[in-house]
Structures are given as structure tokens and as C-alpha cells.
Design a protein that fits this description.
The chain is of the alpha/beta class. It has 4 domains: 9-151, no CATH class; 160-262, 3-Layer(aba) Sandwich (Rossmann fold), CATH 3.40.50; 267-328, no CATH class; 349-510, P-loop containing nucleotide triphosphate hydrolases (Rossmann fold), CATH 3.40.50.300. It has 15 helices and 17 strands. The protein has helices spanning 9-22, 79-88, 137-158, 176-188, 212-225, 238-247, 255-266, 270-290, 311-347, 362-370, 413-418, 420-424, 443-456, 476-486, 500-510; strands at 26-31, 36-41, 65-71, 92-98, 104-112, 122-124, 128-129, 161-169, 191-200, 229-232, 251-254, 351-356, 387-393, 397-403, 431-437, 464-469, 489-490. The strands form 3 sheets. Strands 1, 2, 3, 4, 5, 6 and 7 form a 7-stranded mixed β-sheet that branches. β1 (26-31) and β2 (36-41) form a beta hairpin. α4 runs parallel beside α7 and α7 packs antiparallel against α8. The longest helix has 37 residues, at 311-347. It is elongated.
Length: 524
């Protein structure tokens, strides 16, 4: 076989002759050295490619195999052929039709598009007679891999893993805010959001969320962009995660996994670390066992322990044991927290707790009010551990002000439970300071999310002050109008001068004179 040949005349003649005689598709998987690695035998309409080794499937590389197979009805490359080309990162896919006498007739070829443009980034060549095909296989493969390598080098220079963000939403549903929030979460956990792909359909595909056709386009786009990770807005079921992973060599994550990763990176105290690990194991357990439901039928007694026990069953038992251990440790931590809360209550110090959507500026506000220097970063979940400081009012009166973890829409129940102790602190608050980023496009949705979560925690009746932060990012008239509409106090947490109206509004509510009314104004 010559250097630029995609198949020799002799090999093409052999597979068309055999295919014509058996009335079944015949295929060859051929390596870069021209040697045949697999001979495939299908039926009249298709053949199945076996699971292939992954040695050459790193980012920026094709698999080093080309598939040449026969078609019996004179048809061109099928959609399944193009799917195999994209998902398996084949060097080339070719279909050769057969004459009545079993000779090669028409040839149809396709390869990955080196430019990676279009909805389906592959190049499908126009069909031609087999002996008239003018195609330099080696030149095309080298061009494609050089293009992929350039994208990979660009990502290497950036120093972060590239990720494609995927979301499936109902028709006409607003998705921009949700996807931008997902991008911020990915950035916070060390990923580089490269592109957002949104699909609007009545319900996500039960098997792969997007559907196999759209997913092929996404995976091929990831190949060209140098992305190594797919991040889904929707939580993936164990079956969906398994099916999507089987289609490509990309890392597959969902939004909950990203949030868990952020929590794991930023947890500082022993309690936070325990609760993050508990949430991670709770999330992992059904995904570990769910892939192999037959494991649940194994007994846990004599005859199932020891060397004969499957690794996954061992892992499941270890997870159960670790979860039980973490819960015992957290019970001890909770007892200590309860003791400290009782001491504060006996001291009679009012408690002011800051709540709000993640990245609304809660920690910055606490720093501004108390002249503290807690870390306040412009990223989701910069604060995970409860922080408390003394806030002094005139006449030597003080309150204890606490910062809490930020809320987020569609917060998984396991994550809410993971920080139950942090949120339990809110039950002791005399006043909740609800901080809102009033410059956010979806600030109304953020308010509704926080209100809903507080109601779930049984705190809907706790007195609350609404604070619109970041008013400096709005036109002054718009900021004033927005504050008036919601009955909120406007401020900029980075400008302490703007905090004086907030302090003036808080003092009579935290320190009512005599039997004065302590009812706070609330938003509707």
C-alpha cells in the first residue's frame, strides 16, 4: 500500500468480493502502518465496531485507525458512519459499493474537518468511482492532527482544562442566566468554559440528555476546541453518565459535581470538610452501585466477604462504613455547636445573620460593617464556613453578625444537608439580613430562590431586612426606583459611607426600646 493510499486495490477487491458473495457488509480497520487490526463482518445494512483501545485518544490526536467497509445497496455513507467517525476519532471512514460481479464500484469517504466549522464538523467527499478517487490519506490526517494539536497547545498555554457547557431546557425557557451561572461555577472549580451549547426540547433525552445526534456534534466540537470536559447543567442519572462516557474519551460532569468540587476546594473548618465528604459520598454511592444493580442482590454475610467479593461491592461497603463514621463525627460537632449557641443566648447578645444568593456580596458587606478582612472573592461559594464578628452600635451596644454559605437555584438536597449545621445557625438569628446583587439581570429569581430555601428551612417568619447591594453598578435613578419598588435599603458594600443608612435602620430593630415594635419591613 503506497504512503498516501487509503486502501490497496487488492484489499478493496477482496472485501467487495466476499461481501457480494455473503450478502453482508465487510469492514477492515487499518492502522497507520497499513496493517489490518480488525476484520469486521456485519449484516446487510450495518456492522458493529468492537471496543477499541484508547492508546491514541488523547486530546489533539486521532485514533490512528481508518475504517473501510462495504455497502451492498449502492448507498453513500450513513448517519451511523458519520457518528462512528466523530465519536471514535477515526482517521477516515470509507464505504465501497459492489458491482453485480463483486468488484469495487463507487467509493464514499469522510474525515474530521481540520477547521472544525459547521454544525457537523466533518468533511464528506462527493462519491466517485473507486478507481477515480484522488485522495491523499496521509496528507489529510497530518493536516487534521496539526489543527487539533494547535488547539491543544492553546489550552496548555492557558493552563486550565477546557470545558463545553451543555444545557437542555424546555421550549421558550430562559436559559442564559442559568448557563452563565454554570460558567461561573466552572471557573470557580478550575475549568475554563469554552463554549455553551443549549438545546430546547420538551424533556431531556432519557439516555444521553441531548440525543445521540446532537451529542456527536458536541463531542466533535470539543475535539477541535481542545476541550477535555463536558459539563451538564442537568444532574445526570447513573445511566446517562454511563451512556455519555461510553460515547467518548471526555470527562463528563454535571452541575452538582462541579458544586461539590468547589466545596471540597474551599472547605476550611473540620465541620465543613466532614460535610463536604459526606455529600460527595452520598452523591457517589448510587452512581457506583447504580451501574451494576445486580450487586444489591449480594448478601453481606458468610460467603460474600474476602477475596471473592467484587471490587465494586467492596467499594459500596466502604462508602456505607465511611458515611456512618462521618455522621457520628458530625453528631459530636453539632453537640458542641449547640452548647456554644446556648451560651450566646444566655449572654443576651442579638444575632444578625447575613443570607443571600451566592456571590451577592455578603462577605464584603460583613467586612464593611465590622472593619474585618475576611476573604471576599468574586466567585460562587467563596464563603463556606460560618464566620462571626462583633458589630458595634452607638451607646456600646453590640450584636453578633454571622456570614453564611450562599444559596443557589436548584440546590440539590444532598448539598443542603451537607451544610445543615451552617444553615441551622439561622434559626438562632433575631434578624436576617437578605443581601441581593441588585445589578444582576436575574435578581428577582435570586430573591425567589433565597425566599424558597428559607421557607424550606422553616425561617419564613424570621424578621428580615432586604439590602440591595452593588447599587453603584446601576444608574442612580434606576437604583433608587428599584429599592423603592422592593422596600430595600440600597448600598455598596465596598463603600462604607453608603452603609450608614443600613446601620441606622438596623439599630431600632435590633434594640427596640421597651416594648417597641420589632417587626421589620419585608419585601413582598
Amino acid at each position: 500500500m503506497g504512503r498516501g493510499e487509503w486502501i490497496s486495490d487488492e484489499a478493496a477487491r477482496q472485501i467487495t468480493e466476499i461481501s457480494s458473495r455473503l450478502r453482508r457488509q465487510v469492514g477492515l480497520l487499518i492502522g497507520r502502518d497499513g496493517k489490518v487490526s480488525h476484520v469486521l463482518l456485519g449484516d446487510q445494512t450495518q456492522l458493529t465496531i468492537p471496543r477499541l483501545a484508547r492508546e491514541r485518544t488523547g486530546p489533539g490526536r486521532l485514533r490512528g485507525l481508518r475504517l473501510v467497509h462495504t455497502h451492498l445497496a449502492g448507498e453513500p455513507l450513513s448517519r451511523d458512519d458519520i457518528t462512528d467517525l466523530a465519536l471514535l476519532r477515526l482517521d477516515l471512514i470509507a464505504a465501497i459499493t459492489c458491482t453485480a460481479g463483486g468488484f469495487p464500484d463507487q467509493a464514499f469517504l469522510a474525515h474530521i474537518d481540520p477547521e472544525g466549522e459547521g454544525a457537523a464538523p466533518v468533511v464528506v467527499l462527493e462519491g466517485a468511482h473507486f478507481h477515480e478517487v484522488d485522495f491523499d490519506f496521509v496528507e489529510v490526517v497530518e493536516e487534521v492532527e496539526a489543527s487539533l494539536a494547535r488547539g491543544r497547545r492553546a489550552k496548555a498555554v492557558a493552563g486550565r482544562e477546557g470545558a463545553l457547557l451543555l444545557g437542555s431546557f424546555p421550549p421558550k425557557a430562559e436559559s442564559a442566566g442559568a448557563m452563565e451561572e454554570l460558567a461561573a461555577l466552572c471557573t470557580a472549580c478550575g475549568l475554563d468554559p469554552m463554549e455553551q451549547v443549549v438545546q430546547h426540547r420538551r424533556r431531556p433525552d432519557a439516555k444521553t440528555v441531548f440525543g445521540s445526534g446532537k451529542l456527536v456534534e458536541v463531542i466533535t466540537t470539543a475535539l477541535h476546541r481542545g476541550a477535555t470536559t463536558l459539563v451538564f447543567f442537568q444532574d445526570l442519572t447513573p445511566a446517562q453518565a454511563k451512556a455519555i462516557t461510553a460515547l467518548s474519551d471526555l470527562k463528563v460532569l454535571d452541575r452538582t459535581q462541579v458544586i461539590l468540587d468547589i466545596f471540597a476546594r474551599q472547605a476550611g473548618t473540620r465541620e465543613a470538610k466532614l460535610r463536604v465528604e459526606l455529600a460527595q459520598l452520598t452523591y457517589l454511592k448510587p452512581r457506583l452501585v447504580g451501574l451494576f444493580p445486580q450487586l444489591s442482590r449480594l448478601g453481606g454475610g458468610i460467603g460474600t466477604r474476602g477475596p471473592g467479593e467484587t471490587k465494586l461491592e467492596v467499594d459500596r461497603r466502604r462508602i456505607d462504613s465511611r458515611i456512618a463514621h462521618l455522621k457520628r463525627q458530625l453528631t459530636t460537632v453539632a453537640a458542641g455547636q449547640a452548647l456554644r449557641r446556648r451560651k450566646r443566648q444566655r449572654a443576651g447578645v442579638p444575632i444578625l445573620s447575613i443570607v443571600g444568593y451566592t456571590n451577592a456580596g455578603k462577605t464584603t458587606l460583613l467586612n464593611g460593617l465590622t472593619a474585618s478582612a475576611l476573604e471576599a472573592a468574586d466567585r460562587p461559594f467563596a464563603t463556606l464556613d460560618t464566620a462571626s464578628r462583633r458589630l458595634r452600635f452607638p451607646r456600646d451596644r453590640e450584636v453578633l453578625i454571622t456570614d453564611t454559605v450562599g444559596f443557589i437555584r436548584d440546590l440539590p438536597e444532598s448539598l443542603l444537608g451537607a451544610f445543615k449545621a451552617t444553615l441551622d445557625e439561622l434559626a438562632d438569628a433575631d434578624v436576617l439580613l437578605h443581601v441581593v446583587d441588585c445589578a444582576a439581570a436575574d435578581f428577582r429569581d435570586q430573591i425567589a430562590t433565597v425566599d424558597g430555601l428559607l421557607a424550606e428551612l422553616g425561617l419564613a417568619g424570621t424578621p428580615r431586612v432586604l439590602v440591595f447591594n452593588k447599587v453603584d453598578a446601576l444608574d442612580p435613578e434606576q437604583a433608587t426606583r428599584r429599592c423603592r419598588e422592593w422596600g430595600a435599603i440600597g448600598c455598596s458594600a465596598i463603600d462604607r459611607a453608603t452603609l450608614r443608612p443600613l446601620m441606622a435602620a438596623l439599630e431600632p430593630r435590633l434594640f427596640p426600646e421597651g416594648k417597641g415594635d420589632r417587626t421589620l419591613f419585608r419585601h413582598s
